[in-house]
């Protein structure tokens, strides 16, 4: 699977600090706000970055932060990618009602 690369972009409602906290849970190490993540995964690497985007206002009263989170896979098998994305979703899961 040499040189296989693919990428996922997610528009998420989070701040750089919230991204750092969730990313730290994902990779089990401290991540500073604004820092990207690069980790070995299987025989390749995964890179995760967060770029703040314009916030969105809902109903005139509630303003939510937004960011584009980019996950780039480099030489990762489909199975490793699927397992990683399940871990990503759990680490970035937020409480709800």
Give your account of this protein's structure:
The chain is an alpha+beta fold and 97 residues long. It is built from 2 helices and 4 strands, in the order βαβββα. It has helices spanning 16-27, 78-91, and strands spanning 5-12, 37-41, 44-58, 62-74. The protein has a 4-stranded antiparallel sheet. The radius of gyration is 14 Å and the shape is elongated. The N and C termini lie far apart (43 Å). The model has no long low-confidence stretch (mean pLDDT 90).
Strand fraction: 35-45%
Q: Strand count, sense and closure of the main sheet?
A: 4 strands, antiparallel
Read across the widest sheet, the strand sequence of neighbours is 1-4-3-2
Radius of gyration: 14 Å
Uncertain ranges: none
Q: Which class of secondary structure composition applies to the elements?
A: alpha+beta
List the helices and strands and how they pair.
Layout: E1 5-12, H1 16-27, E2 37-41, E3 44-58, E4 62-74, H2 78-91
Antiparallel strand pairs: 1-4, 2-3, 3-4
Helix pairs in contact: 1-2
Summarize, please.
This protein is an alpha+beta fold and 97 residues long. It has helices spanning 16-27, 78-91; strands at 5-12, 37-41, 44-58, 62-74. Strands 1-4-3-2 form a 4-stranded antiparallel β-sheet.
State the main characteristics.
97 residues; alpha+beta; 4-stranded antiparallel beta sheet; 27% helix
